[in-house]
Amino acid sequence: MQPTNPHPQIQALRAAWEETVQSTIAIGQTLSEAQWLLPSPCPGWRLKDLISHLTGIENLLLDPAETITLLVAEKPWVKNEFGQFAEVAVDLRRGNTGAEILAEFEEVVAERGSAWRSEVRAPEEETFFAPVGMLPLGTLLWRRVFDSWAHNQDLRMPLGLSGDLDGKAAEAVYRQVARLIPAIFAKKCAAPIGSSAWLTITGPGAFSYGAVINGDGKGEFLKTIPENVSASIEMSTHDWYLLTCGRDGRENAKVELAGDLNLAAKVLENLTITP
């Protein structure tokens, strides 16, 4: 039966999303045009391009049937189909000023926030989103939280502004991304049976998580550190963002490794989850 009231999980995601997009808007309102033109940690994008991208995605969610067929010229930072898709909204607004792009973003955030508040579908209900196709609504909306939070960090970094590392959006991102570690450890790292990895993330929003390879060769999520852990990794929440999002500057991340250093290095090499 179709629910008649907003699902608490959906509304919790909305609160996290609104927290981080409003933070982005507040930062944007202080920027000069020269600052909007600073390069971001996303290759090929300036700070204003981050907002163009977010605007394009939220506009698409307002009208999922909308099809944008614009072909963008080849660019060295576009590596795959999703990158091509993401570049469209940026290309459409490259001639706009940062102030103009921010004003459009503020409008779409208000519309999307209103639509999200009245959302009555369940998190598991399948919905369409280009270019990935069908996926659960809860997954789609969590990705909006992740994308919005990551680009908030991308905006802050060149400006030297810390923040948003311990709020609702950050907590949602940390919790969900951590759950990917068993697959990363088992498949991408090809860790041997019985081995384990533990990550300690320090600073604002500090958290920790890990994985162990069971007797079937599958990764299992760990909430507490095991005895005689095989490989340990420690870093700050900021450096975790750089590595998991694959951002420029990750080569300077301060990371401490212990135990099986080769295995720990493999985990680090495979932390990036963005396309």
Q: Using the alpha-carbon principal axes, give the shape.
A: globular
Structural domain tally: 2
The CATH superfamily of the largest domain appears as dinb family like domain
- Termini distance? 35 Å
CATH class of the largest domain: Mainly Alpha
SSE diagram, text form:
Layout lengths: L7 H21 L4 H4 L10 H16 L18 H12 L5 H20 L8 E4 L3 E4 H23 L8 H11 L2 H8 L7 E7 L4 E7 L5 E4 L8 E6 H9 L10 E4 L1 H9 L6
Parallel strand pairs: 3-6
Antiparallel strand pairs: 1-2, 3-4, 4-5, 6-7
Helix pairs in contact: 1-5, 1-6, 1-7, 3-4, 3-5, 3-6, 6-7
Give structural attributes.
single chain, 275 residues, alpha+beta, Four Helix Bundle (Hemerythrin (Met), subunit A), Nonspecific Lipid-transfer Protein, Chain A, 2 domains, 5-stranded mixed β-sheet, globular
